[in-house]
Amino acid sequence: MGSLCREVVTLQLGHYSNFVGTHWWNLQDAALTYDPDAPPGELQNDVLFREGQTFGGHITYTPRLIAMDLKGSLQTLRQEGSLYETGKDPTAITWEGNVMVHKESLPTKNSFLLDLDKLDVSMTQTPLGAVAMETVNSRLERTQKGYRLEGSVRVWSDFLRIHLHPRTISVIHEYNHDGEAHRLEAFGQGEALLQGSVLEDLEDRLHFFIEECDYLQGFQVLCDLADGFSGLGSKVTEMLQDSYGGRGILTWGLAPVSHPDTTPMKELYHLLNYSLGMVHMANNSSFFCPLTLKGGLGRRPTQPPSFPHLNYDPSLWYHSSSVLALALDSITVPYRLRQNSTPMWEFADALAVSGRKVVAAYGALPFPMTQGSSLPDALGDCTDALPWKPLSACPELGDGHCFGQSVTLKGLEGQSLVSQLRPGMQPPTQLHSLDLSSLNTKYSVQLVSSPSKLTPPFPQIFSQSLGPQGFLQNQAPTPNKRSCAVSSLPVLTSLQSSPALGPWLSELHRGASALDPRRIAPSFLSQGPELTDFQESLEQLRLLAGCYRNDSGGMMRSSSEEDDDG
């Protein structure tokens, strides 16, 4: 008898969110096991995926997902997908008149997509009943082919390796993905979108995925924070709260390190969108977590975080989104576990206490652990601090104080949780005398043996110091030479509600408050919000920052903050 499956519906709003989401779903697909004799894994796949059937009778397993993007953003991907094109839909209307054909040059596919097409063709010729055992996933894995897609990824569908349900992709035709005209740049534009046909379309898609759930636990919302999608996400989360208020709504605000076509004026728009989107989505969600590799959300961000064992290009969306997807794969473990899972609303309630709806993420990607060592040894090597880096542009204060925290360490397969000491040998640290398997129940820590599994086309952004399983190698690596690709990775993540968020939110408030959109960006408010609503939102941001003062006298405060309170 299987454990209760609490389903989740995922929404991806915006182009960068779909970049992160594509890597995320590729990771989930890589972890699927199709062998009926294999023992069940630690994570329950049905939380995220739904089972269906094509017109030809083939069983499908697709994400329970709604992905919204703009006109021109799909490139080679068909909006309705290709899973359900075999056979004839009995409800379809047949046109008997003349047909005029207009030929249009299609975007070219990269090497990965061309290989994927060949595998799809061979799978359609597989007898019914064998498809579940032989998938694109397993065939790609057997080819062991590496792809260097850095120069050919233009949009997120260029590295999407799974099939999507026809109800998944929603294209907003009012705005363009590329070009100078009709761009979705301001918060008010996004807010105004969720009405009429756009609202009806989203409601129809939500009802389709929700009605087949037995025990819906909530929604994962990935939303672009820098452009008009921040306004759309604010309205979408408001609708979810109004219609499904008893469910968990976990919202992740995504921001790339840089935009390819940015200007100083667009950067001002980004700052205003960050501020308004964060306030509104935090208010409408169980919690809100910014996810970005930017050094800050203000006008002068510091350098992106440097991970000791990653060689990634922060300016490449294909790279930065893969790092954030790896972190998200670990952070979301608690409500996806097969046994002893924590429901979304309970997970959020433990973090978002006393109005502190904004939380910050940190990650060690990979968690530095030598093959064959023990967890106490690895933690003992972190003498000054744990090796995680900011994933929300919010540095830690360093005092270790948290109002709430959720830590996940994923990928301990084959590693010992206890220190292997010789008889009579004294433990070198207190850690070495503990059985760390008890952390799961005593603290908000999840230890998961299965790592994040990496398969093509995940970018090979790893240093030579890592072996194929993502562990540190005992011997020094040969310069400029890797025997084989990194196929899995141990990941340590932390989700925190801490006093560090107070000064961080205050800085965001001061930056946005210093801008008068009527003078420097008059078109920003042309479709809303009203100036009084804009000012009220900034005041809510200031009050939100004040929630993070700790009991011993508060967060670090500058003289300007004291003046603000005056």
Automatic annotation (TrEMBL):
Residues annotated as domain Misato Segment II tubulin-like: 6-118
Organism: Hucho hucho (huchen)
Designated name of the protein: Protein misato homolog 1
Domain DML1/Misato tubulin residues, every copy: 152-337
Free-text function comment from the UniProt entry: Involved in the regulation of mitochondrial distribution and morphology. Required for mitochondrial fusion and mitochondrial network formation.
Broad class of where this protein is predominantly found: cytoplasm
Family statement drawn from the similarity comment of this UniProt entry: Belongs to the misato family.
Matches recorded under InterPro entries: DML1/Misato, DML1/Misato_tubulin, Misato_II_tubulin-like, Tubulin/FtsZ_GTPase_sf
Lineage: Eukaryota, Metazoa, Chordata, Craniata, Vertebrata
Cellular component, GO annotation: mitochondrion
UniProt record, GO biological process: mitochondrion organization
Keywords of this entry: Cytoplasm, Mitochondrion
